């Protein structure tokens, strides 16, 4: 079956063809033409017009054409039903309908801006909506952990956090956590206890308090900074790197920040510490 709509599609006029081809008619063909030619060409070609005023397949109240196709053809796929408010929100500028609506609009607008050929745009859009469907079906509850190491931290806390605390004995999670931190500090310099607490849905103050009991009476942040300074001391003693290079290699935003933290933990600036090494 042929379908026809206005040229230069962005949201609904790509999402709806995707829905039709995936759930209604896999052999469907789509035509994009100037607005004033949609109805005449629909009659001439025997095509179904959509997403224009006065036809069956179009908007109704706050529902877009994508919604109507779902209703008309009885599509009850759970992932499609999750996609519906995203498409509707992006197409009607109601980004409050779904958190993903604004992102879909931004990507679709950029795609249309970059691609001037409507058929090529549809082809690329099919990939976009296939990806959105996969997210809705398999990945919507999966969180993007920014560092694989943070996932290790979460696994450790999930494993041990609920165990009864024994103040006379270092708990297993603290021992394992210390080993993991020591193993990873050279390659992962952006560890976040706040992000960890949010993922675990445990108040960050509680994690911070428990952490300090078993890590030299230091907060998570101070403990990580201490390890960075230990690494900096090692680099100062064994390499010819400049202070700026060492600051970068140990995860500090700039040399000034590195100097302040180094002085806090050693009582000396990095330059004074380095001069002392050359005198020995």
UniProtKB/TrEMBL annotation:
Domain HTH araC/xylS-type: 175-276
This protein's UniProt keywords: DNA-binding, Transcription, Transcription regulation
Keyword flag Transmembrane: no
Domain of life: Bacteria
GO-annotated molecular function: DNA-binding transcription factor activity; sequence-specific DNA binding
Record keyword Aminoacyl-tRNA synthetase present: no
Pfam family, one: ChrB_C
Name used for this protein in its record: Helix-turn-helix domain-containing protein
Naturally occurring in which organism (per UniProt): Chitinophaga varians
Lineage: Bacteria, Pseudomonadati, Bacteroidota, Chitinophagia, Chitinophagales
């Amino acid at each position: 079956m042929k379908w026809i709509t206005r040229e230069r599609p962005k949201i609904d006029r790509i999402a709806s063809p995707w829905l039709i081809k995936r759930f209604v008619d896999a052999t469907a063909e789509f035509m994009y033409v100037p607005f004033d030619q949609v109805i005449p060409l629909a009659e001439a070609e025997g095509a179904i017009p959509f997403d224009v005023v006065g036809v069956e397949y179009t908007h109704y109240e706050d529902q877009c054409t994508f919604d109507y196709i779902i209703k008309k053809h009885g599509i009850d796929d759970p992932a499609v039903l999750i996609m519906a408010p995203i498409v509707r929100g992006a197409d009607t500028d109601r980004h409050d309908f779904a958190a993903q609506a604004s992102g879909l609009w931004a990507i679709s607008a950029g795609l249309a801006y970059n691609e001037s050929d409507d058929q090529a745009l549809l082809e690329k859009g099919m990939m976009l909506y296939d990806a959105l469907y996969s997210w809705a079906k398999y990945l919507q509850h999966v969180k993007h952990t920014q560092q694989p190491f943070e996932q290790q931290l979460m696994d450790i806390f999930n494993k041990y956090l609920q165990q009864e605390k024994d103040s006379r004995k270092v708990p297993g999670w603290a021992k394992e956590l210390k080993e993991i931190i020591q193993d990873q500090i050279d390659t992962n310099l952006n560890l976040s206890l706040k992000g960890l607490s949010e993922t675990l849905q445990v108040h960050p103050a509680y994690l911070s308090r428990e952490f300090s009991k078993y890590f030299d009476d230091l907060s998570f942040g101070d403990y990580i900074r201490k390890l960075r300074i230990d690494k900096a001391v090692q680099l100062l003693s064994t390499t010819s790197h400049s202070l700026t290079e060492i600051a970068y290699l140990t995860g500090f935003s700039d040399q000034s920040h590195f100097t302040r933290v180094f002085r806090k933990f050693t009582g000396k600036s990095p330059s004074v510490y380095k001069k002392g090494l050359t005198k020995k």
